[in-house]
Protein 1
Amino acid sequence: MGETKLNLHKGSANLIPKQMRITKGALMRWSKSFILFIFFAAWVTSAIEANSPKATAARVSFQAATPGHASSTLEVGDRMPAFRAVDQFGQERDFGNLKGPNGLVILFFRSADW
Amino acid sequence: MAGISYDSQAILKFFSNQHGITFPLLADPKSEIIRSFGVLNPRGVGFSEGMAIPGFFYVGSDGSIKEAFFEVNDYARYTANNVIAKLFPELVSADERNIPALHLNLKLTQSDAEVVPGSRVTLTAIVSLPRDVHVYAPGVRGYKPIKLELEPAADAVLHTVHYPRAKVMLLPAIHEKVPVLEGTFRIVEDVTVSYDRSFIEQVMKGPVSGTVLTLKGKLFYQACDTKICYPPDAVPVSWHITVKPLDHSRAPEAIRHK
């Protein structure tokens, strides 16, 4: 029974049952679990905050920026819809062949005719 | 940059040839892209049905919308240079000029030198302070903060003045913390040129070269170095914007909207 007897007063790790010893490997596994838990908690918190009224107000709504205009659900932070069209030179264009290293500025204008 | 409208490719080709436009203009004659971006203009009736609400989106290289620039109606609108000046201020320097000022270097610039009525233009004061010299930032108490103040103009709407973020400086002699600006920074203010009918008529009847709109004001500041604070100063500043008549010419009849 000497192997399983706990005698913490002796201060010897060899007296602690093997299953109860905090080995280096176990400590690493616990650390990893703890770090993963912290990341998960941060993700949950950020998801909650992102949907809070305060965060929603902070996002610049296109609708709010254009009173008097038709409503739109497209907001800053949203994914741009995919598009493909022919330009004035007859070349087929999409986001992939238009964008530069910093992205793309898209101008919507009323008409080049009138 | 790319432009998108409900015009046909033939109209866009004619227009870009006429005005020397080299950046891509995309034809969206069925307004499918316009609808997908949610910018179909509800004011479009008759041959203008399907047109877009005028404005800009800045899309990051990952495809997400970073900024949207749309005005309150179809007549007031951001200029392309104004948008570029907001996104990449170092790229825009129209009509840059030095203004004599004590204890600092002052340059004035603007996003556009020539516009049409309703254009929103960015006016910029670039301030450069010598090493160890600072000015007080807006919000400071007991000192004269730097302040750009334009006189009201009949033919332009003045928007809010934007200052850079201040640095907090500890003044050891008096154990006080104060907000200051150092180095080189920009003070910017947007102005929207009038689109009132009377002003548009005035511009249409004016010279073909355009009507010059002058915006005057003063830059107030107090500069200090590590030893002393100099007396408060005020430097007169002005920007000139040439307002050109609207272009009412249309595409050839065979290709124009009907």
Protein 2
Amino acid sequence: MLIRPDALTAILLMGLASYACRAGGFFLMRYVTVTPRVEAWLKAIPIALVGAILGPIAVNGGPAEWLGLATAILVMRTTGNDFLSVVASVAVVALMRLFLG
Amino acid sequence: MNLSAAPPFTWAGFRAGAVRGMILVPSIAMYGIAFGIMASAAGLSTAESMLFSGVVFAGGAQMASLQAWTEPVTFIAVTLTTLAMNSRYMLLGATLRPWYRGLPAHQSYFSLFMMGDGNWALAMREHEDGRRDAAFIAGSGFVLWFLWVGTTAAGHVFGQLLGDPHRFGADFMLAAFFAGMAVVFFRKASQIWPLLAGIAVAVEKTVSGPWYILVGALAGSLVGAFRRADPA
């Protein structure tokens, strides 16, 4: 398996979407101005998306995932270090899965 | 438009970007390795994940799209997820317009491909300090692009060595990253409601398939748009 045709198509489409965002704002600035509401909307999209990914993980998970999320949040709150928070969280999940099967 | 007002775009500026961009190396390397491990857990090959990083070149969007990745892959879902996560780049790109005024299009649009959160922030500081060489983003992004693709490959190989992603919690890395991001968002009142609405709607809509992410993102972001604080 090197590069499957459907993966290639998906990656190229995502690349186009990504570049459209990078170049789009710059390009459109020649013709329109960003209203505060549009700006608030664009800023809120990634935040809402993070929530949308986390919510179902929390609801569909078990004790290992719940403790993992709690660890990530706690370590991030206390240290502010995202690397540490990920490592601690993944370690907790791995240990929980080891002992709970 | 007065073309003589175009900012400089020089090798010196390119090199300055490359050098000052080094401050971003640790975090980009860490995210690159993490993305490689996640891509391996999601069933992508080494070549596919390197191509992914090289073409999309955006950590958050790549990780979010992996979450929407199904076998076989749903093209519209992963593309819209990338679009949603990267839509904030439209704001970053828009802020470069006054600086890049008069710059030849190929220099502007190459720089925009190389723009990420990190080197955009560095470039804004350069600009505030009065340094106007427009090649800064191209130079920093160029070096970080190789780092990003290289660390993705390293992470993917490492992920394959780990074997079963479930056993070592590798499938949980994305959740852990995003939980950390959520903590940062939660500190600002204006960001709590979109986050909570995203959670609520996605949970409500959790059917099979990758669509719950987009429905949650759309609903949550609209909440953000309409709850925005009035300009002080």
